[in-house]
Amino acid sequence: MENLDPRVDAFIAKSSAFAKPILEHIRQVVHETSPLITETIKWGFPFFDYNGPVCNMSAFKEYCSLGFWKATLLNDTYNVLKIGDGKAGSFGPIKSIDDLPSKEILADLIRQAMALNESGIKVPVKKEPAPKTELIVPDYFLDFLATKPRAIETFHNFSNSHKKEYTEWIIDAKTEATRLKRMETALEWMSEGKSRHWKYKG
Fold first, then answer.
1. Long-range contact set of residues 88-91: C-beta below 8 Å, sequence gap at least 24
2. What is the pTM of this model?
3. From CA 164, how far away is CA 77, in angstroms rounded?
4. Which CATH class is domain 6-119?
5. What is the pLDDT of residues 1-26, one digit of tens each?
6. How many Å apart are CA 191 and CA 77, to the nearest integer?
7. Contact between 135 and 160 (Cβ < 8 Å)
8. What gap in Å lies between CA 179 and CA 172, rounded to an integer?
9. What stretch(es) of the chain map to CATH 3.90.1150?
């Protein structure tokens, strides 16, 4: 099929034995749901796009993850999404296919995400401040930072103020393109151990 990316084949091939059937299952469900979805690789792991990111999958040492880019806007009548709980992706750590919702539920969520992208609906920026004792970091931001151990280590070792500077910078992006660019920059800087405003210090 023309919408398959050989780099995704390579990603699956180099993944751990437990991860391969999970990744292949997710990929199959995505393309069975719609032939209009295309594949690409961003930050080293597979993304499924239709007028922008629909969802992405990742494979780590002990689990996989599946994340919907606009998870907060999906109508989760099945109560399967785990948003903002600090775990991987939109469903938490996935260690087997049984940890995923059924094909029918996944297909419905995928169709919803496609419709949101086609309509140009954006994730609203939260104006209210986060609780001082807890900083909510988007799951997709944590997921791609985890693709570079140095970056995720730097982020976790940051003070709360440094974490907040990066997180708000990502969330406050006005467009998807701007958010993607900022995330790439953040990944590069944190891989070098740099804070958000490193240019203005020292």
1. 88/58, 88/60, 88/63, 88/64, 88/139, 88/142, 88/143, 88/146, 89/57, 89/58, 89/65, 89/139, 89/143, 90/55, 90/66, 90/139, 91/65, 91/66
2. 0.65
3. 32
4. alpha beta
5. 458 999 999 999 999 999 999 999 99
6. 39
7. yes
8. 8
9. 6-119
